[in-house]
Amino acid sequence: MAKQTVGLGSSANDGTGDSLRVGGDKINDNFDELYTAIGTGTALNITTAGASSNQILQWSTTNNRFEPTNSAAAGDISVDLTPQLGGDLDVNGNKIVSASNGDIELIPHGTGKIKLDTLTFPTTVGTANYVLATDGASAMYWKQVGSTITLSADSGTNDTYTVGDTLNFGGGTGISTTVADDNISIAIDNTVATLSDTQTLSNKTIDNPDLTGVSTGNIKLRCATIGSFIAQGANALASFESAATYPGAFGVDTSTHKSYFASNNTWNEIATTLSSIDIFADVDTTTATPTDGQVLTWVGASTAWKPTSIVSELSDDTSPVLGAGLDTAGFTISGTGKLDLTGSGSKARFDFTNTGALPSATNYTGMFAVTTSDSKGHFATSSGWINILTENDSVDRLSDVDTTTTSPNYGEVLVYTNVSGTGRWIPGHYTPQSKVSANFNVTNNGSTDFTFTGDGFTTHNSGGSQNDPVLYLKKGHTYTFTVSSGATHPFEIRTASGGSAYGFGVDNNSTGSGTITFCVPMNAPSTLYYQCTSHAGMGNTINID
């Protein structure tokens, strides 16, 4: 409630203020609200006993009241033994200062580390004379810095340089040094050979040089006077540099005294007076070493001149006659002429390992040959080698017969069938229009059942028979029922159980002794029945597919 004010009136006892009762009631209401807000309604839960400067009233759960208490909330954080920040500490341009020469300690908890901005400081004290260094990123670490530095050179003894002394960088012949703004510059004059300047070398020896032109540039060696020379060679051709790397180079094999030039990624021998005629690409005196009296003869098959013995000029004899058997000694009689032998007892071998070894059929049209790997005979035509069949071959080898894709089964015949647009004789069951798809032998089991044997029942049970089975017939197929049930049990195909006889495609229907032929028409219903005309319990369903 809002605070109630006692009406005092305009002046003392003028009768305009609250009565004593009304004023006392307002005072009681105000006190009731105070005692309820900060007390139990009858007593105050607050005490100021023992209060001192900078204390605040803080609720005591022990005494169940507000009591004077030292607190950081009053501006004195020294009384908080475990102060915690609720957010980032903003010094607002001020400093963190210790009193009484005290230290300012930053101690992370556990594995935590001290970070200033992005730099992370080490957690150990390090080693004496070590300094803090950065890894170039964010980590700081202790690093040893020596007081002396050992200087060494390619020659002479080492020297120890003490930090703080003057370190001199002296020049030499053609080399000078300068120091400016903490920078040491080393310069060379034109007496020193460089890559960019034009310079003259005098009395210089270049040991094992590798002179390579820059980019597509050339290396030019020009001799101003007669008598200059370049020696290039090795004691073995295999020791030459790569011909692919140095095309146009010249070299000498010092062990064989042969010269070469590099071209087409290889070293090519140069013919000299020391060379043999065999050096030429179209001469071969290596495969067969020449003997006395031989001549070089062109061998077309080898495209080379080879040593050959000339016995006689047979080509000049227009009617040569053999005086004895001709031994080809492993060589071949070839030519474009004819072989005409009329003598009896002639024989010749025409055997080859496999079809891949047969000669060109186009060149040898009419030739007979046998492949020994499969003992097959062949003859050559302009279209290729034709395989000859024998009594040892299967009918499957004929071009229009295929018994491989589908292996034949017992009782099947070869049926001419369209296979992907091509006629082929393949194994199968041929059912011409006049052929019966199945024959059922029908007898009777008293007056209760028809008993079936024949096609489809030979393995049904131990007796090879079944009483009143459900039949499954196909449209367009012909079935026969050989009935031997007697005159008292006529067998009839019907439209329904107890219905009329079915007359489409059925010959000799309703007989007890004879053959009923049923050619199932294409418009036959899906279900027919067979039944004894005298006993309704004999029969069952015929399903038409």
Briefly say what this structure is:
The chain is 3% helix and 28% strand.
Structure description:
It is a single chain. Helices cover 3% and strands 28% of the residues. With 545 residues, the chain is mainly beta. Among the domains are: 109-147, no CATH class; 233-275, no CATH class; 351-393; 397-428, no CATH class; 438-544, Immunoglobulin-like (Sandwich). Strands 25-24-23-27-30-29 form a six-stranded mixed sheet, with no helix packed on it. Strand 15 (295-299) and strand 16 (304-308) form a beta hairpin.
Helicity level, as a percent range? under 10%
Summarize the biggest pleated sheet. 6 strands, mixed
Radius of gyration over all CA atoms, rounded: 63 Å
> What is the number of beta strands?
32
Determine the CATH superfamily of the domain at 438-544.
Cupredoxins -  blue copper proteins
Shape: flat
CATH class of the domain at 438-544: Mainly Beta
Instruction: State the helix count.
Output: 1
Quaternary structure annotation: single chain
In the CATH scheme, what's the topology name of the domain at 438-544? Answer: Immunoglobulin-like
| Helix/strand class | mainly beta
- What would CATH call the architecture of the domain at 438-544? Sandwich
Strand content: 25-35%
Low-confidence stretches: none
> What do the pLDDT scores average to?
84
Strand order of the largest sheet: 25-24-23-27-30-29
N-end to C-end Cα span: 99 Å
